[in-house]
């Protein structure tokens, strides 16, 4: 659940210029790319996500951490370096902080924490200290005696 919450704080947005090396990117693969890359990444590839290492000749060089299929399934990778021909990529997107979703998530967490804290302390009040020693305190506890007959 924490991973989903953290991922909800980010969007991938299309870029007009080449992002700098080290940027997290998502490469949307074209139909031609699905056919050409099927032997390396599996059939029906939709996107390749990773960290951009750089651009060399006509290739994006990325350390791949996830490959998404058209079917909706994902395969996690461990940062393998891959060369992806730029002609096989339709759109390049970079990861940006989603400010409004992050603020909403933080607000929800603070709200839940406030409710939990209020619920924990809503068990009653402490008796007030009285200067009159003849009055018993308001929350006098009466011991409960339970007798269990034992017959042998």
What does this 3D model show about the protein?
The chain is an alpha+beta fold and 152 residues long. The protein has a domain at 18-97: SH3 type barrels (Roll), CATH 2.30.30. 26% of the residues lie in helices and 36% in strands. The protein is built from 3 helices and 6 strands; from the N terminus they run αββαββββα. The chain has a 6-stranded antiparallel sheet with strand order 1-6-2-3-4-5. The chain is elongated. The relative contact order is 0.17.
Structural class category: alpha+beta
* Spatial strand order of the main sheet: 1-6-2-3-4-5
Strand coverage percent:
35-45%
| C-alpha geometry | elongated
Order of helices and strands: HEEHEEEEH
Question: In a nutshell, what does this entry contain?
Answer:
Helices cover 26% and strands 36% of the residues. By secondary structure, it is of the alpha+beta class. It has a domain at 18-97: Roll (SH3 type barrels), CATH 2.30.30.
Main attributes of the structure:
152 residues; elongated; alpha+beta; 3 helices; 6-stranded antiparallel beta sheet; SH3 type barrels; disordered N terminus; 6 strands
């Amino acid at each position: 659940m924490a991973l989903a919450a953290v991922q909800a704080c980010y969007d991938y947005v299309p870029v007009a210029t080449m992002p700098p090396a080290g940027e997290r990117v998502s490469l949307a693969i074209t139909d031609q790319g699905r056919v050409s890359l099927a032997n390396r990444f599996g059939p029906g590839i939709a996107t390749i996500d990773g960290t951009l290492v750089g651009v060399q000749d006509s290739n994006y060089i990325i350390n791949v951490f996830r490959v998404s299929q058209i079917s909706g399934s994902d395969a996690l990778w461990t940062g393998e370096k891959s060369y992806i021909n730029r002609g096989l990529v339709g759109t390049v997107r970079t990861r940006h902080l989603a400010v409004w979703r992050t603020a909403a998530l933080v607000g929800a967490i603070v709200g839940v924490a406030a409710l939990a804290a209020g619920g924990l302390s809503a068990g009653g009040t402490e008796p007030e200290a009285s200067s009159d020693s003849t009055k018993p305190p308001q929350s006098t506890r009466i011991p409960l005696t339970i007798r269990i007959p034992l017959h042998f």
